[in-house]
Specification:
Number of helices of chain B: 10
Helix content of chain B: 25-40%
CATH architecture of the largest domain in chain C: 3-Layer(aba) Sandwich
Number of domains of chain C: 2
Strand content of chain C: 15-25%
CATH class of the largest domain in chain C: Alpha Beta
Number of strands of chain C: 14
Largest interface: B-C, 24 and 19 residues
Oligomer: heterotrimer
Helix content of chain C: 40-55%
Order of helices and strands of chain C: EHEHEHEHEHEHEHEHEEHEEHEHEH
Shape of chain C: globular
Largest sheet of chain B: 7 strands, mixed
Radius of gyration of chain B: 17 Å
Number of strands of chain B: 7
CATH superfamily of chain B: Thiamin diphosphate (ThDP)-binding fold, Pyr/PP domains
Structural class of chain C: alpha/beta
Shape of chain B: globular
CATH architecture of chain B: 3-Layer(aba) Sandwich
Radius of gyration of chain C: 21 Å
Distance between the termini of chain B: 39 Å
Strand content of chain B: 15-25%
Distance between the termini of chain C: 42 Å
CATH topology of chain B: Rossmann fold
Largest sheet of chain C: 7 strands, mixed
Bound molecules: thiamine diphosphate, iron/sulfur cluster
CATH topology of the largest domain in chain C: Rossmann fold
Chain lengths: ~180, ~250, ~350
Amino acid sequence: MKKEMIFAGFGGQGVMLMGRLVAYSGMTEEYHVSWMPSYGPEMRGGTANCTVIVSDKMIPSPLSSKPDIVVAMNLPSMLKFVDTIKPGGKIYVNKSLINQEVERDDIEVIKVPANKIANELGESRIANMVMLGNIICREEFLPLDIVKTSLKEVLPPHRQNLLEINNEALDRGCALA
Amino acid sequence: MQVVAKKPDSLTDKDFHYCPGCTHGIIHRLVAEVMDELDIREKTIGIAPVGCSVLAYEYFDCDMQEASHGRAPAVATGVKRVHPDKVVFTYQGDGDLASIGTAEIVHAANRGENITTIFVNNAIYGMTGGQMAPTTLLGQKTTTSPAGRKKDIAGSPIKISEMLAVLDGAAYIERVSVHDVKHIIKAKKAIKKAFKMQLEGKGFTMIEVLSTCPTNWGIEPVEALKWLEENMIPIYKPQVLKEAGEGE
Amino acid sequence: MAKKILMKGNEAIAEAAVKAGCRYFFGYPITPQNELPAYLSWRLPEVGGVFLQAESEVAASNMVYGAAGAGARVMTSSSSPGISLKAEGISYIAGAELPAVIVNMMRGGPGLGGIQPAQSDYFQATKGMAHGDFRLFVLAPSSVQEAVDLTIDAFELADKYRNPVLLLADGMIGQMMEPVSFERSIDPDDLPDKPWATDGAEGREKNIINSLSLDPAELEKHNQKLKEKYDQMEKEEVRYETYYLDDADIVIVAYGTSARISLSAMELAREEGYKVGLIRPITLFPFPKEIIAKTSEKIDDFLTVEMSTGQMVEDVELAVCANNSSVHFYGRTGGMIPTPEEILAEIKKIGGGK
Ligand SMILES: Cc1ncc(C[n+]2csc(CCOP(=O)(O)OP(=O)(O)O)c2C)c(N)n1
Ligand code: SF4
């Protein structure tokens, strides 16, 4: 088993955290994992992405030129990465913010209304967890409860109060899958 | 805040890359307006620093050189000695000027190098993501002073303008701020005076401009202006620190 | 086995330094290694150590000189432009035979360059760090776990040889997260004695830490003594890893991040039937020239892959020259990272192997 994934979006959309959770959960399940962020000078409003690889073998390159899965939280991210996806791969599209269609027919397109559901839960910033819940339950290589325990480990102490609502978001995303 | 509509000729059409609420942009504009008003765009050479304003060479529409971190006053010295009749300025942050570049600024000032330095003090390292600067306030939290700056470990905020004012070569040194319109007008006057004194061959001039860094202070732009006023102004009092009189 | 944690390379190296018993750090901010000092800024005070942000890299490396001369386990870290400024202190540290660990998270250059990963400081690290006849011991990790292990080794090697040790990595290894475990932990109270250190001449002859030697005969003797240390390193400390040398027709030589990517390329090539092997130098000085020379007895084609326009390739050429093998080169630079597909295309160009 080897999954190469790219998570991409605006600076504040929490794509780094999504990737970290997948890597952390993969580690807990004793897979080999790597997490590689894009990095740049401290500037607001830019786009951010990270590459996560989960594998049952040693991971050679931690970068991915042909990912299995791309998660696009906004339009620029979709446009940037859609052509890199391996034929037969998947793209998860944040339907709430992206209304452009994917123009490839050799990949699967999964549309998730991440922001809409997050807003229903009363917290727009957890759209990332809605998306992640959906991915986890669709891909089925990591159990959702492991992702939830990882979240507890990864969230800094002053954010632990958000644990419950994040778990709710994961469940809502999962239910859609 | 008041934004003057028309772009000064001494700025290019390039959009600034600064964060929302960052006052680097205002300071660029003031320098450019002064260049326009003194009609010196075509005889000015600017030296850009290493810091968030590293791309200043793309914004000022005059000849520009990019220096290595902290060395802008040395680079400016080289330029000025070759072209003593031209106007030469450096634009430097507080990490650049007050930390790694202290030797260069002290000696440029002490030689009375006939250049103008615009010293942007935002009490933090912006570009590299919010580390402590020598100008960081006591108690201020940064990524390398996570418990707040402590005097017994990192000393007190360094007052560069006061330090340089004691040097004979310094002709004019003033500290200004850009947190409200009143202060912006004053800041521009000071910058203009510094350039004028350089044109008159008076020696080293420096304007320290108190500036914001909402991103690394971790607060919203409007709050940042207030934070500057309430926390920086008491430590870094805006004032003329040196003005060499006639015959000096 | 110790628990695995997911950590960024920069932070993992910082924690490894603490585990190695290092209690002193002097540095200056620069991307892409900022997480390393940021981590130590809270971690060192927690264990009774000292973190100090210096006014410049020149100052930082001279603070390291002072602390190492005073007998401490001490470290500094930076990235390419900052290492150039640290060079002064490093030359004095080597001259005065002081143990110290320096980290370089390379970025693209020359000059201010960029901030993305590069391997363009190989010459600087292995040959031309600064003035004088000296060598750094250079370790090049290719994963976060290896960065941890080599950091701890770096302190031990520095003490063993009384020589500066450079951990040479790049922005990618600094920024990426991988699972790590910290198996070793050294108590700072159990470190070897340093009878030469300037810690106060209580009840003993005075000690001097110095690199000045005005008598050329004396200085030559000193240089020869240093040379003997470097020779011993070359004899005893060479480290590398090899893959598929038994059946290979083409052998890639790559270190650090380039080696990781080359491994992917090697897998792709093998899937297509190309018999590709790989040698990954872990010590860049001492350079694993013997294994490369030995391999060249039966291999005609070597491919050196670097994130530079070609630096280590010169050492590979030297190593194979007795057997006249061809040394090919593929490099991306300025912060660009080669892809496995690009390297595969080079392998196909060289042909053979199939
Ligand atoms: C020799 C060297 N050391 C460190 C750096 C990294 N660096 C880039 S900008 C900067 C400091 C910027 O802070 P400041 O001068 O306060 O300007 P600001 O970004 O706040 O405007 C540093 C340390 C560098 N480029 N070169
Ligand atoms: S990081 Fe700070 S100094 Fe730099 S552009 Fe943003 S607000 Fe301005």
